[in-house]
Predict the structure.
Amino acid sequence: MEANDFVYTMPIHDAPGDALGVLDLLDRVGSPATVATAGGRFFGFVNGAAFPVSVAATWIASAWDQNAALRVMSPAAAALEDVALGWVPDALGLPSECGGSVVTGASMANFTGLAAARHALLERCGWDVENDGLFGAPPLTVVVGDDVHASLSKALGLLGLGRKRVIRVPADDQGRIRVDRLPAFDDRTIVCIQAGNVNSGAFDPAAEICRRARVEGAWVHVDGAFGLWAAASPRYRHLTEGFDLADSWATDGHKWPNVGYDCGIAMVRNAAAMRAAMSISAAYFNPGELREPSNYTPEMSRRARGVELWATLRSLGRRGLAELIERTCRHARRFAEGLRAAGHEILNEVVINQVLVSFGDAAVTRAVIAKVQSEGTCWCGGTEWQGRPAMRISVSSWATTEEDVEMSLAAIRRIAEECRGLRPTD
Ligand SMILES: Cc1ncc(COP(=O)(O)O)c(C=O)c1O
């Protein structure tokens, strides 16, 4: 634990607070301490902004105060989730028979998909992992790329499969799994691949990996937190070729589709495996004929986050989604062109909405990132790419306009010019 993780050890107030006074205090103290992720010039992380329709749908759902665990607790939440979970595989070109659930984010979606994988592979060996645990279970092999996202490793840890007890396959210069370095698979192997590397945006060679996995009986899980949405655009769909051959998928509503936080989606081809991994039974819990949401999720009580997922997808439609993906990718290309033209090095192939920039040596690049963040025209994050510090520009927001991109480019170029020639101690 970090020493300062829990700094607020104040006693709770004795007297009740007046509701309006509490809200006023919240606004005065809280609002200035927020980050403008809803604006058009926030390029940090892969954070979408929430569409107004999503925010408003969340307000409605909050006013309803529904517990989306069971259909009987909220027929509306369950039905909206059913509809949205039908749209997602359609938009992403995934099998229509997929089971799905709406979870908090790609981390939990990875957890859910991998739990279904663990169930299915061990069931083949006659082992009931949900009841008997992993002690003494037939061993499973987990294969990941060297550039696996940290949240997937965390999910493996939570599932008892181990963050480190994996075969890491070397990645190429874009972070893609090298198929020539894949180990042999068998029917007790889970292979984890990515659609959209968090830094470069690159896609693993899914078609080749999935075909091999099918022949050898392995399970393929896709971490497609944002990249899977490229399938919603005719222009970028080719990047997701072969991902539909996998067995489970994790993606986010709150990233590229700009649904408000928090909203992730787990999908599993074998819906029965998903249900077996996630369902519970209790005397007071009487599942009906229809899908009970919490039979497919890690949680029981849950926020009705399917409401804003439904509202956002309903308002975008197929064309709106494609336009959002294509517009943000166009902005990313403009960033890359503008920075390259100013003599800065673009470290990745800009295949979707991610741009990695170096401004020279490590100290200058770090100084540019820090100054861009403090100057305030826009906000870009930092990362390390292939051993080099880099600025990471992620264009994920519906709100970003061409003017936002030009203003941000001008600011970054000016700051980079000011930082050029900095000595490491400056
Ligand atoms: C590739 C990838 N996987 C998983 C995650 C985790 O997603 P979440 O924060 O929604 O849990 C991210 C977050 O950026 C990501 O980029």
Notes: Residues 38 and 49 are 4 Å apart (CA to CA). The chain has a mean pLDDT of 95.
